Amino acid sequence: MLPSTTRPKQTGGRELARIVFDQETIAKRVAELGQEITAAYPDGELLVLGLLKGSFIFLGDLVRQIDRPLQVDFLVAASYGADTVSSGTVRLLYDPETRLDGKHILVVEDIVDTGKTLNRLLSILAPEPEEPGDLRALAQARGRASGP
Fold first, then answer.
1. Average pLDDT over residues 95-119
2. Labelling 40: which of 16, 71, 74, 137 has CA 20 to 30 A away?
3. d(CA 73, CA 25)
4. What does the angle CA 113 – CA 118 – CA 121 come to, to the nearest 5 degrees?
């Protein structure tokens, strides 16, 4: 684990206040999620949709732990603008290129903040879902998520 005063290149040289989860803890949980997803979707086509930009590393690690055929695609949604708090107004900036019909869709997000973006996004992707979708997030911002 890195000392809390480390300035890794990934932070642009900014000092870290603390490390919440070390690399080994994250890797263990990602492996567990991969096993859970493999068991939850034994049949049918699985489409893993990554919400860019934050999810791409988590998504890459996660799909390597899913032991079944799958497709990967991405989408970009914006709700923050220049703010640090979601406006609740979600714009889809990049649609997935893959057809969604008849597939199990797993949306992968890095951090769920208020949940507004994901709630709106799920309603855009499946306005009348035949069965509930599934979501995997690396982390949830403490105390900020709201219900649908």
1. 78
2. 74
3. 26
4. 150
Secondary structure of residue 105 in the 3-state scheme: strand
Beta strands in the chain (DSSP E): 46-52, 71-78, 91-94, 104-112, 134-140
Look up residue 46 and give its two tokens: 């699985």
Q: Which residues are CB-neighbours of 112 under 8 A, at least 6 positions away? A: 118, 135, 137, 139, 140, 141, 145
Specify the pTM: 0.72
Segments making up each domain of the chain, as ranges: 19-140
- Could you give the CA distance from residue 108 to residue 49 in angstroms, rounded to a whole number? 6
Contact at 8 Å (CB) between 41 and 133? Answer: no
Task: Using DSSP bridges, classify how beta strands 71-78 and 91-94 pair: parallel, antiparallel or unpaired.
Answer: antiparallel
pLDDT at 123 over 80: no
Catalytic center residues: 113
